[in-house]
Amino acid sequence: MNNKFSNSLYKLSRLKTKNVKIGNTFLGKDYPVRIQSMTNTKTSDTLKTVNQCIKIADAGADYVRITAPTIADAENLKNIKSLLIKKGYNIPVIADIHFSPKAADIAAKYVDKVRINPGNYIDKKNNKNYTNTEYNDELKKLEKKFTDFLKICKKNNTAIRIGSNHGSLSNRIMLRYGDTPQGMVESAMEFLQICKKQNFNNVVISMKSSNVRVMIQAYRLLVNKMFAKNIMFPLHLGVTEAGDGIDGRVKSAIGIGTLLNDGIGDTIRVSLTEPPEDEIPVAKSIINYFEQKLTDNKSVDHSNIDFNFFEYNKIPTKSILNIGDKNKPVVILDFSDTKNFDFSLAGYLKKNKNYIKTPTSADFIFTGDILPQQPPDNIYFICNSKKFNYQKNTFPYFYYNDFLTAKNKSQILNFVEISNTNINTGFYKNINKFNNCVFVLSSKNKNSYIDNRAAVLKLYSKKIKNPVIVKQDYNESNLQEFIVKSSFDNGGLFIDGFCDGIFINNKNQSISKTEINNVSFSILQATRVRTSKTDYISCPSCGRTLFDLQDTTKKIKKATSNLVGLKIGIMGCIVNGIGEMADADYGYVGAGTGKISLYKNKKLIKHNIPEKDAVNELIKLIKENGDYKPLIL
User: Fold this and answer.
1) I want to staple 84 with a disulfide (CB 3.0 to 4.6 A). Which of 89, 218, 350, 521 is the partner?
2) What is the model's pLDDT at position 7?
3) CA gap 231, 16 in Å, rounded
4) Same domain, 430 and 338
């Protein structure tokens, strides 16, 4: 398959997508990347919904989305839009539709854009197998109904979003393509072909998933498909059900940031299990950082390297000590700027005078020119090469040119910092001198991601199998900025299987060692290359949510945060619930007002449990299945 999913493999530039008018705010190639969020009030409550729209607008959103699950909700969008305008807010309003074509028809008369989900707009869930004739009959039915909807949109100058969702693909698509990125793309393309046939171009497309890897692969496949069809509609980016706190921000910044680094994306939504207005500052940070990258004029050419960016393939490396090959990617934490060797800051549990390794303990501590006195036997250290004295469990750190002339080297493991510019003819000639070396890849380019990606691909093309650790230094005073930038720069390298470890640091000490360590492990977990804690798939809440999602998520986390490796889905309603938590071990899903359903994998186990009992029942279910295994240290 042609890997030209983007025109930014060599130099960052946005795709030349069509311009789409949404209310009074255009979207597409000639406009900035737009920001949006979604209300979580009941759409039937006009005043509450309007007030939340105003909060979102005041926070800096370009668009606001409102769910319309019923015909009555769709009708009330007229009142919401009218009251917003009366209050001086002409922000474009987007209706979010699931299941009800009639609600979509009504909403299209009143709002500026309607999002439909191709997985459940016409197709109904069933367990039948389709013959080719039946499959085509379903497509004809879909075309008839969707064409009627497009006529309403044309009449009212209403844009649409074809919003394919990994969690709600139709049974028809699932049977033919499976629960895959390809299935997501084919689901959307069926609708896009109808738009083309009807000469309807006011279209935006999205490929959302709670699995960051799936989300990125789906967008790349979609863009590749649109290249082949010679069409390029604007793209709405987002990691759905990202969660909250550090993990929610890391997932969003990796998913959205990696695609922006590919030149893909015209509008974004950061989905956090937090108040909607809290999503906007995170989205702004992502966009601001992306715009800085666009000013980098350096071009990196690796067009002659054949690599499949559409599925996960770990680049093969050899094992050196505990790095590379089938070892989990390692975390290095920088202690060189402190004389306080308190390793509990690096994720170790301190008991008396001993340090016990936990799932989030840094694998190596970089100490620079200082070595701790009487270091613990169970911790690996890295020191600057000039201070290396063959101390047990300590390994030297070299810069590329220094290593070639150095005499004092480890026979076990050496860390050698290199950059893309170092990888040249002279480098290849000397490669046999680096047999027991791990390369630490560092870039001074403004867009370090594209530069580092090119460097790894050069190593890959020459079949050089030294493990690679990506290194990046920051100087942020704000934790959210540090999270966004480190995830944006480094996450995509793990998504594509390029690296064997991460070494990020922040010079400003307002970000603690513990926070840097946590962000490092969160990046590895979000990219699904190393699991170190409980994984939560929790939706951002909307008007369909049937319980207090933020409070419930906190309660579930408190009760299960020590169940390392367990995946728990926390879903406000059934719309995307079962699909988005497809690979979750357990699911907590809103079933009705004050009622919860519990799932083991995709199987419904307990239905309509009173909300007050549901968290305890979830813990009971986990214990009954033998999965309540807190980490014993």
Assistant:
1) 89
2) 52
3) 10
4) yes
Give helix 611-624 / helix 549-560 axis angle, nearest 10°.
30
Contact 299, 330 (CB under 8 A): no
At residue 298, does pLDDT exceed 50?
Answer: yes
589-614 residues labelled b (16+ CB within 10 A) or e (exposed): bbbeeebbbbbbeeeebbeebebeeb
User: What is the share, in percent, of the chain residues with pLDDT greater than 70?
Assistant: 93
Mean pLDDT in the chain? 90
Residue 468: give its domain's CATH number.
3.20.20
- Is the pLDDT at 379 greater than 50? The verdict is yes
Same domain, 485 and 556: no
Q: Distance of CA 566 to CAs 179, 473, 532, 552, 557, Å?
A: 21, 32, 10, 18, 12
Q: Which residues contact 238 (CB under 8 A, 6 or more apart)?
A: 206, 208, 252, 255, 256, 268, 269, 270, 271
pLDDT over 80 at 349, yes or no:
yes
Q: What is the pLDDT of residues 532-576, one digit of tens each?
A: 998 888 776 665 665 677 788 888 888 888 888 888 888 776 655
* Average confidence (pLDDT) over 399-416: 94
Domain membership flag for residue 586? yes
Relative to beta strand 63-67, strand 159-165 is unpaired
Sorted by sequence, the CB contacts under 8 Å of residue 183 that are 6+ apart come out as 169, 173, 174, 176, 177
Q: What is the pLDDT of residues 31-44, one digit of tens each?
A: 999 999 999 899 99
**CA–CA distance, 344 with 335 (Å, rounded to integer):** 12
Cβ proximity of 205 and 233 under 8 Å: yes
Does residue 82 lie in a domain region?
A: yes
Q: Which of 555, 553, 547 shows the shortest CA–CA distance to 570? A: 553
Residue 460 resides in a domain: yes
CATH code at position 541: 3.30.413.10
Domain co-membership, 463 together with 609: no
The proportion of the chain whose per-residue pLDDT surpasses 90, expressed as a percent, equals: 65
Structure confidence at residue 155 (pLDDT):
96
Q: Are residues 355 and 279 located together in one domain of the fold? A: no
More confident residue, 215 or 565: 215
pTM more than 0.90? yes
CATH code for the domain in which residue 86 is found? 3.20.20.20
User: What are the strands, taking DSSP E only, across 312-413?
Assistant: 330-334, 349-351, 354-356, 364-368, 380-384, 394-399
Question: End of a domain among 508, 526, 544?
Answer: 526
Q: Which residue in this structure is represented by tokens 């990258």?
A: 293
Q: Output b/e per residue, 114-150; b: 16+ Cβ within 10 A.
A: bbbbbbbbbbeeeeeeeeeeeeeebeeebbebbeebb
Provide the domain count of the chain. Answer: 3
Rounded Cα gap, residues 223 and 209, in angstroms: 16
Query: Is residue 433 scored above 90 in pLDDT?
Result: yes
pLDDT reading at 1 higher than 50: no
Same domain, 511 and 539: no
Angstrom distance (rounded) from CA 389 to CA 375: 14
CA distance 186 to 225: 9
Which structural domain range is residue 68 located in? Answer: 20-294
Beta bridge partners of 568: 536, 586
**Final residue of a structural domain among 474, 495, 526:** 526
Residue 595's beta-bridge partner residues?
A: 592, 610
